[in-house]
Amino acid sequence: MDKNTALNKIKKCLRLAKSANEHEAAAALRQAQKLMAEHGVSADDIEMMEVSEQMARATSSRIINWEAALAGRVAAAFGCEVIACRRRTFMRPTLYYSFIGCGAAPEVAQYAFTVLLRQCKAARAAHIKIQPRSCKPATKTARGDVFAYAWVVAVASLIDSFSQSEANTNAIALYKAAHFPNAGKSEVTDRVTGRNIRNADAEAGYEAGKAAQLNRGVSGMEERKALQA
C-alpha cells in the first residue's frame, strides 16, 4: 500500500471516528493511528489531506502583470492561494498558475480563471486591433496590457473575497511548504513603463470588465460567486 492509498484509508477511518457509536468510533480511531504509524503519516499529512492544487496554463512564458492580477483575484474569491510555477513540457519550460485550496475550491478557481482569461484575452486583442497603424508593436502591447489590467480591476470589484477558516489557511500553508519549498516572490514582466499609453486604454478596459456576468453555484459550491462566459 502506497502513502496516498494509506491516506485515503486514514481519511475514511477518521470520518468513522466521528460516529455516534462509541465502539465503532474507537475502533476507527485505533485503525487510523495504526495506519499512520505503519506508513509514516504525520499530523501535518493529516492536516493537508483536504488540500489539493489545480494548474491553469498562462498565456506567456513570462509573468504578465494583468494575468497575475487575475489569477490572484480569482484565488482570493475562492479561498485559494496561487503560485506561478514552471513545468517542462516538450523540453521547454511552460508557465502555469497553480491554485491551492481545500475541497473543490482549486478546481472551481481554475475553471473561473480559465473562463475569465479567455474573455480578457479576447477583449485585449480587440482593443489592440483598433490602435492606429502608426503604433509600434511594443506600444500596442503596452496599451493592451493597460486595458487588460483595468479589465481585471473592474472584474475584481464584482467579486467578494471568500473568508478562509484558520484551519484551511494553516493546511494550505503546510501544503505550500511541502510542495513549493523554494517558492518566493515572482518577478513580473513590465511591458508598460516608458511606452506611449493613454488614460483611454484604462478607461476602455474598466468599462469592458464591468460587463462580466456573475452567477452562483459552480461545481456544487452553492454559496460562492463565480464568473462564467
Automatic annotation (TrEMBL):
Residues 44-190 form the DUF7168 domain. Residues 6-42 form the DUF2786 domain. Pfam families: DUF2786 (PF10979), DUF7168 (PF23771). InterPro entries: DUF2786, DUF7168, Phage_B3_Orf5. This is Uncharacterized protein DUF2786. It comes from Paucimonas lemoignei (Pseudomonas lemoignei). The lineage of its organism: Bacteria, Pseudomonadati, Pseudomonadota, Betaproteobacteria, Burkholderiales.
